[in-house]
Amino acid sequence: MGKKKVLVVDDNSLLSESLIDFLDLNKFVGIAAFDGKQALEVLHVTPDIGLILLDILMPVMDGIQFIEALRTELPDVFANTPIIMLSAIAEHITMPDWAKEKVGKPVRYRQLMKLVEQHCLETTS
């Protein structure tokens, strides 16, 4: 079995690169998208994503707009791919029903990796 793919959707390129490096070191394949529109494009050509790490506040297409488009354009991907919400305001917002978890920024990498492993294992069982 190959490495699980994780789509990192965040407009902060330093954070995205850091998360992808961390995922790669932990036996995952990280793929970057810098807004919701790019994330949809990635999912159209790479439907076997095991998990999505999703920022909420982004230009072009934010996280909420991305979720609405994902539900419409790729309903199977939406139904079968766990989503972990990343947000600097995570502690101030209610976790939406589509999110498996919410993680605040700055990101605690070990905590996030436990969640990534947990939810990627759920999708393989």
Automatic annotation (TrEMBL):
**Could you tell me which residue ranges the Response regulatory domain spans?**
5-120
Keyword annotations from UniProtKB, A to Z: Phosphoprotein
Q: Which residues carry this modification: 4-aspartylphosphate?
A: D55
**Annotated InterPro entries:** Bact_response_regulator (IPR050595), CheY-like_superfamily (IPR011006), Sig_transdc_resp-reg_receiver (IPR001789)
Q: Which domain of life is it from?
A: Bacteria
- Specify whether Ion transport is a keyword of the entry: no
Q: Which GO terms describe its biological process?
A: phosphorelay signal transduction system
Q: Does the entry feature the keyword Phosphoprotein, yes or no?
A: yes
The UniProt entry, under PANTHER family, shows: RESPONSE REGULATORY DOMAIN-CONTAINING PROTEIN (PTHR44591:SF3), STRESS RESPONSE REGULATOR PROTEIN 1 (PTHR44591)
The molecule here is called Response regulator
Recorded source organism is Noviherbaspirillum galbum
